[in-house]
Amino acid sequence: MKEAAFVRQNKPRWEEFEQVAKDQRHADPDRLAELFIQLTDDLSFARTQYPNTRTTAYLNALASKVHLQIYKNKKEDSNRFVRFWKYEIPEAMYASRKPLLYSLIVFVMAGVIGAVSTLYDDTFVRLVMGDSYVNMTLDNIGKGKPTDVYSTMDELTMFVLITWNNVLVAFRIFVLGVFSSLGTGLYLFYNGLMVGSFVTFFYDQNQLSHALPVIMLHGTIELSSIVIAAAAGFVLGNSLIFPGTYSRMESFKRGAATGIKILVGLVPFFIIAGFIESFITRYASMHWSIKMCIICVSAVLMIYYFVIYPQRLFLNGKFSSNQLSQNARLQQ
How far apart (Å, rounded) are the C-alpha atoms in residues 116 and 119? Predict the structure, then answer.
């Protein structure tokens, strides 16, 4: 169709739309919506058939003007904050369930390797943890306070430093996913290696029964969060390796958005872990029942919110099918 014929055919509708748009408060909403849809269809056709013409510029300006008028006074959803924590983070976790499984497997394997290596080579823990840290721990064991490292500074300073450090570790393990997930995998492996070596070191010193419950007071949330942050890193890496039907850049943007959403969701849990480590872990002599209560509550909290709750929401149809289909390819 020639441009002149296209204009003659649709001009009456465009003029009607201009009149309706001038006084939207008294306009029929259904008619306004119908005309707006038709206008955008005409704009798409004009862009294809008559690019860089006055007709296309006119339609684009008219559509933009009305779009701004419609949305400029749109109220921000007051429940946006609640919806983010109640639905968006669980949806991101459900879409990332396979990377989460891979992350857990890597961490556990690294922990086992670290434990076995330390059992058969008592110098291995020094290679992983450093001489100064091992010597300090041995000195504390000699004093009868094997976990005294958790009470070396005042609570508030320790809380700020530990929480900030944990957030940085999570961010680092996520960003390393840019290197095709390999960076995230190696950093996660190293962290698992340290945990396995550290725990086995206390076993060698016959201090495991005392040290492990104390470490897991904060470690339950802290280590779980690191594994989840690594899953976000794998999502980021997979978005580059497996772009699917998207361009690599578009795939990367989507993977980054999902991963960042997971990281934001971890921040409160890092704060909780930092609080426990700074204000509670130092009291290593507390009754074992209190330790077990804190550990069990922490474990239930992490497993429910990041694993069980997303599954339940999915089964109840609370997630957007479009969003899930867009994120499904990230689980390669």
Answer: 5
Q: Give the dihedral of Cα atoms 49, 51, 55, 60; nearest 10 deg.
A: 110
CA distance 130 to 223: 20
Overall residue count recorded for the chain in this entry: 332
Q: How far is CA 178 from the centre of its chain?
A: 15
**In this predicted model, what pLDDT tens digit does every residue of 128-168 receive, in sequence order?**
989 998 999 999 888 888 888 888 788 899 999 999 999 99
State both tokens at 33: 């919506």
DSSP at 123: T
**Integer Cα distance of 324 and 74 in angstroms:** 27
CB 262 within 8 A of CB 93: yes
Q: Looking at per-residue confidence, does 293 or 54 come out higher?
A: 293
* Predicted structure pTM score: 0.73
Q: Cα separations (Å) of 76 from 81, 88, 238?
A: 11, 17, 33
Higher per-residue confidence, 207 vs 153: 207
Q: Return mean pLDDT, the chain.
A: 85
CB atoms within 10 A of CB 217: 26
Transcribe 210-276 into DSSP letters: HHHHHHHHHHHHHHHHHHHHHHHHHHHHHHHH--TTS-HHHHHHHHHHHHHHHHHHHHHHHHHHHHH
Q: Of the segments 13-17, 61-65, 282-286, which one has the largest average pLDDT value?
A: 282-286
The DSSP output letter for 319 is: S
How many C-alpha atoms does 201 have within 13 Å on its Cβ side? 28
Cβ atoms of 149 and 162 closer than 8 Å: no
**Which residues, other chains included, contact 92 with Cβ-Cβ below 8 Å and sequence gap of 6+?**
258, 261, 262, 265, 327
Confidence of residue 180 (pLDDT cuts 50, 70, 90): confident
